[in-house]
Specification:
Elements lengths: L1 E2 L2 E2 L5 H9 L7 H4 L7 E2 L4 H11 L3 E5 L4 E6 H15 L11
Parallel strand pairs: 3-4
Antiparallel strand pairs: 1-2, 4-5
Amino acid sequence: MVESGRVVGILRRNDLVRALAEGHRDAPISGAMCRDCTAVKDTDSLTQTLETMRQRDCASVPVVADGPIIGLLTLENVSEVLMVNAALSHGHSQWNDPRP
């Protein structure tokens, strides 16, 4: 959620599910969102950002550049990048074909 051009919170999946399960179907997002998962800057280091996400128990955070939101960083995205990089670093240029 953005107020006066500033990110003030994010509606996480578990927040949404909890609000719906509690019968708050028509409640405003501001009542269910997490205000601890505030934005990180595009210039912040990945290490610093991951530590912030861990400390705040946020699996996703908005990314801003001089104010406006430019993206969303998720732990799932970071894991995917790490897996792809690990696979590429093992250096097989061809798929292993199990056929004889």
